[in-house]
Specification:
Two copies of one chain form a homodimer. Chain A has helices at 54-62, 71-80, 105-117, 126-141, 144-156, 169-174, 177-187, 203-214, 260-271, 277-284, 316-330, 336-354, 357-371, 377-385, 389-398, and strands at residues 13-16, 22-27, 33-40, 65-66, 69-70, 84-89, 94-101, 158-159, 194-199, 229-230, 235-238, 243-252, 291-298, 303-312, 405-410. By secondary structure, the first copy, chain A, is of the alpha+beta class. Chain A folds into two domains: 13-214, 2-Layer Sandwich (Cytochrome Bc1 Complex, Chain A, domain 1), CATH 3.30.830; 235-410, 2-Layer Sandwich (Cytochrome Bc1 Complex, Chain A, domain 1). In chain A, 54% of the residues are buried. In chain A, a hairpin with a 5-residue loop joins β1 (13-16) and β2 (22-27). In chain A, the strands form four sheets. Chain A has a six-stranded mixed beta sheet, sandwiched between helices. Chain A has a five-stranded mixed beta sheet with strand order 11-15-12-14-13, with helices on both faces. At the A-B interface, α2, β7, α4, α10 and β14 of A face α2, β5, α4, α10 and β12 of B.
Chain lengths: 417, 417
């Protein structure tokens, strides 16, 4: 059997600062660029129930001036460094990602150190920030597929694990300046934060820079919010339009679970590539959909397979029936041929991913968050090599797709037969 | 001044087969992967007015078996090669793009040679293919921002240059099997086709493979469809919902125009990065939008700047007024500081792009299609180095944004003041 592990895997190194911040690096001279991902434990799970959107609005405000730079100087300097960057708020973490030429790595890190440690949070820009966040909430209302998948996660996961980080209108309107100051002070700290860097840089130099920028960052006590209630249940969202959007979720195993790669491969047989079962049965053979997919979404302590299909209202029940039949049929097992095709796709995807510093930095941070360590490419390769049709089928026999949550959005409700 | 041209640019090589197919390559041992883009002159501009969607449906059918492989074997083999691929139909060309490990380059090329030269076009799958294409058309109806931008291009460009390649319901329903056979036979040929490859491969070996796979591909006469009528004009699309979507287009210069980089840089000052004018004035200072942008879209013989802003109905007129004021103000010129930031972003983006074989292959094909040759990274660097605030401002003085087309989608029409 061909091994999956790619050649020339660079080493992944890690170091924990005294205050709890973890630094991970995968240096490689094959690139001219460097990318980093900075995770902080500041996600929307910490939003009070009547302040949904607080974490997102705080993050929006943090970019409006930090350290020695006012709002204008901050965005000017970031652009002048040639940095491609995104800031997103998830369930548990906020993520600050940046890619640039290697020369800009250090100044970009210094700027983001200001953003997370010394943001100005200007009170006189709060209303503008609030409006931007409200526009995001209103925008989702008009995009049915996104609205559906937000609702599916909300219905499937116990709260707060299914929240949409954008929050809601009432919550965003209620947030005060003091609440933003308090959220920032208590949820941005070194403990539980992860800085992952990939691409062209020197590891020892990075450690010196990280120590200088983050070494004196005082820890804040980590607030743990246990799941406080379950909102699981299927529902229909009435929506005028020619289309029906269907979402189905069922429980799976998390990334850190020893059986993760079994579950993940089973979903791959269902939905990865044009030869996958959903693509074949729903799209190719019956022409029911333009878009249909299933994906395994893993949080640290829970995971779900999320499926989507969008079709016309008149073909919606048939689309649901065929999709659902494939989910049920998965429990009967996968074939050696299906797994062979999937492994070829995985091997290729791993190597393509390795050729992007941004995606490597994201994976390093993800590994640390889920596992508390970095899996080398060799180890990932070995784990995938060890997956066989038999091991997947043993997993599926014990864990057949079941306990479904369904959300539909369209003119009429549908029935899960 | 720092030069923009990145170091270590690999060479771009080209060769024209006797039948007219152009092969372009940029070999580099820095990668484990290889990617290709195959362009064929088979876009939706060739759809008869009462068969809109013919090119897309033909492309959909071509993946359903080709050469020695039936529909099932084709998708199975493609997945078994570990190929990430997309097939898209544009205005002038169909594009077949694939990325994989270097080992899979040759078999993937052989498979796509079958697809474009020897597709089965199975009559017994026509209805399924038609349904898939119809589902795409219906889907756009429910996604307001996409629907708006499709309509903006349709209203702004003379027909057929603003078409949405997905076609329309009437056209797709009318297409016959014979029309698909005829379209495929007359619009897929070597003349005007371009094969661009980037990543790990040997140039001489690629030429041997290309000769073997495509050398005996018989030319078909290229049908030229001149613009046949203008449909330019602003309009409002009534749409129930809380949001208003605003699209504005104005003419610009094409990629092959000597002044392209002046026009492109001006749009960059308007919309590239968080410090850009639209982001600053519309989003940051006033909180009017979550999403606002302008981009220069270039076809071979024409180009336009396309702007989008999405907001709530009640803030729509203000959003339009502020956005429009920025377009008008652009004619007054850009500053040295704005251009400095933009150049830093461009330099970084060029190098990041160079680290992706898929994006390099796409750029090589694009260059050849627009210019009839490949611009080296050094030449691109020199062209951008030569742009100054003065040269941009001289261009803007001669070519101020004007002759606007506006399309709005929302509960009420708006007024361009």
């Amino acid at each position: 059997m061909t091994t999956i592990a790619p050649p020339n895997s660079p080493p992944a190194l890690s170091h924990r600062l005294a205050n709890g911040l973890t630094v991970i690096g995968e240096p490689s001279d094959a690139f001219e660029s460097a990318a980093f991902t900075l995770l902080t434990p500041s996600g929307c799970r910490y939003d009070p129930d009547d302040r949904l959107g607080l974490a997102s609005l705080t993050c929006e405000m943090m970019l409006r001036g930090a350290g020695s730079r006012d709002s204008r100087a901050l965005v000017n300097d970031l652009d002048a460094m040639g940095v491609e960057h995104t800031e997103t708020v998830g369930i548990s973490h906020a993520t600050f990602s940046a890619s640039s030429l290697a020369d800009s790595l250090e100044p970009a890190l210094a700027l983001y150190a200001d953003v997370v440690r010394r943001p100005h949070l200007p009170a006189d820009q709060l209303e503008q920030g609030r409006q931007v966040c409200l526009q995001e909430v209103y925008g989702v209302e008009d995009e049915p597929s996104q609205k559906l998948m937000n609702e599916l996660r909300r219905q499937h996961y116990p709260s707060p694990w299914g929240r949409a980080s954008c929050g809601d209108e009432a919550g965003l309107n209620a947030v005060t300046q003091d609440e933003i100051l308090a959220f920032q002070a208590s949820h941005y700290g070194p403990e539980g934060s992860i800085l992952a860097v990939a691409g062209r840089f020197d590891w020892q130099e990075l450690l010196r820079v990280a120590e200088r920028l983050f070494g004196d960052w005082a820890p804040t006590p980590l607030t743990r919010t246990p799941p406080n209630r379950s909102t699981t249940g299927s529902r229909h969202l009435p929506f005028e339009g020619s289309q029906c959007h269907i979402g189905i979720a069922y429980p799976s195993v998390a990334y850190r679970d020893p059986e993760y790669f079994q579950a993940w491969s089973a979903v791959g047989v269902l939905s990865s590539g044009m030869s996958s079962r959903l693509f074949t049965e729903v799209r190719e053979k019956r022409g029911l959909c333009y878009t249909v997919y299933a994906s395994l979404q893993s949080q640290v302590d829970r995971a779900a397979v999320l499926c989507y299909a969008g079709t016309t209202a008149e073909r919606a029940q048939e689309t649901l029936d065929v999709t659902y039949a494939e989910l049920i049929r998965l429990a009967e097992g996968v074939t050696v041929e299906e797994l062979g095709r999937l492994k070829a796709r995985i091997k290729s995807a791993l190597i393509l991913q390795q050729e992007s510093t941004a995606s490597r930095a994201g994976t390093l941070a993800r590994d640390w968050r889920h596992l508390g360590r970095v899996r080398s490419m060799v180890e990932v390769g070995e784990l995938i090599d060890a997956v066989t049709a038999d091991t997947i089928n043993a997993y599926l026999a014990k864990n057949p797709p079941r306990d479904f949550t369904m959300v539909t959005l369209g003119p009429e409700p549908l029935r899960l037969k």
